[in-house]
Design goal:
The complex is a heterodimer. Chain A is mostly helical. Chain A is built from eleven helices and no strands. In chain B, the strands form two sheets. In chain B, strands 1-2 form a two-stranded antiparallel ribbon. A two-stranded antiparallel ribbon of chain B has the order 3-4. Chain B has helices at 3-44, 62-67, 78-110, 113-124, 131-142, 147-154, 168-192, 196-204, 209-237, 241-246, 254-261, 268-295, and strands spanning 48-49, 55-56, 70-71, 74-75. Classes of the chains: A mainly alpha, B mainly alpha.
Amino acid sequence: MQNRSFRKGLAVFWWLTLMFLYAPLLVVMVFSFNSINTSARWGGFSLRWYERLMHNDVVINAISHTLLLAVISSIIAVILGAMIGYGLYRHRARKLGLLIVLIYLPIVMPDIVFGIADMAFFVQINRLTGLLSPGLATMVIAHVTFQIPFVALIVYSRFVGLDATLFDAAKDLYASPGQRMIHFILPTLKPALLSAFFLSFTLSVDDFVISFFTAGPESATLPIYIWGAIRRGISPEINAIATLMIASVALVAILSLLFNRRRA
Amino acid sequence: MSQVDVVWRRRRRRETRHLLISVLPGALWIFIFLVLPSAYLMSVAFMTNGGFGQPQMPLTLDAFRNLAGFGFLGWSPGNLYTLWRSIFQSLISLGLVVLVAYPIAWYISMCRPRLRAIMLLAVVVPSWTNQVIRAFGWMNLLSPGTPLSTLAEKMGLIAPNMGLFPSDFAVTLGLVYNFLPFMVLPLYAAFEKLDHAQIEAARDLYASPLRTFFVAVLPQTLPGLLAGSVLVAIPAFGMYVIPELLGGGRSQMLGNLVASQFGEAANWPLGAAGALLMLLATLLGLVILRRLGRRLGGGTEMVI
């Protein structure tokens, strides 16, 4: 199998697959600079779609909703998830099977079932009590629900990677629970908390289906806006927004990579 | 009761309290905002459809009869076609994903270790972009008048001016594109542990390259292949965005059927019955994964 032509064939296949993987993204990025209103032909370089974006209040609103949703939900999820991660680690000797099923549930649940279940639930709650009308609040609730497990798993695996005797050392030096938290647990956890925050943030920005079903009329995020724009008919403005989103994802990816490398 | 006993008991009670305080808020959050809503949704599947799509009380199995095609106007095959299309699309795209991912994972495992991490990253990075945008990229590539569509037209594969999108083909392509990383990662994990001595032994015994593959390579990578299959086929079965955007009206899958029942078609019980079916499929996938993990000795946990 180490045969040279076999390897060469695989290399060719690898580059073809890479083209397949990046072609749709590149097309979107390239045609966002197209001067004419189509993705079939190239009419020359222009920035007019970006200029138009600057003046589109709906888009600006959608961007701010997306960021607000991502930041608020990530903060809540990091707090709740880190607590679960710590609890799981500290009590790992106990039988916590049911809890672990509960934590994996948001990960394995098909996102459309997740979104629709939440929507139906919120509608009924709203009918009974008047609370939880669809909007940013319901979206935050749903996003936190799918972010918690990832945070918990990151924090838990950070604890598992620690030397367990460090906990005993802190106790032997008569550190109170509060002191242990401030001087030992939180500092060692800081990188894990940061990467959990970044992951939650990207998960939130990346999500479409769950946001779509829990959103209200006034709380459309960027993916929801793009979805609507596509359904209404293809506009080259979408290329420009999509390019901005691709670029920011790439930026976050590179940042977190650099961050991880420095830590390792 | 001895002194030690009391101390020990007090300590245990304190530990339990600690466990509850640290775990309960998050666990309750998931319970209230995911478990309860899902339970409610499942119960809706057994209710009757009221006037405005709101579920009503007498418990029936009407929704499931609806799902099987029995409606006001007698039986129609529409829903069953949708179900069949979901199964067919997820299996076809699974087959294609395997065909692409297998050589890719093999090739990555052959490269220098430092290169491997970058190559894996290169496979995964596109999936970090929002799936609506990725589907939109394919719409741009496949719509009528684009080079790919023109090429397909010239080769006589499609009717003039139809374009490759919207079509069943575009949906399959979108699914393959979306789920490729889900197969490459577990397969790569299997290839990384490949025992090359077995391959050499097969060759020393004058096995043909094909025979060597089936005897020495495929069995070793089977756990990764099966784990990847579950990770591709089950989510593909319930896909919503891709059929909606790339398929046009005639390529609907189960996810679209479910979603439309909570929107314009306004039949919550029918939608809930479809959702129940999706959950059952997911459960089946998880059971298969667990069985695999137990029989083949781990290696599947890293997947998620």
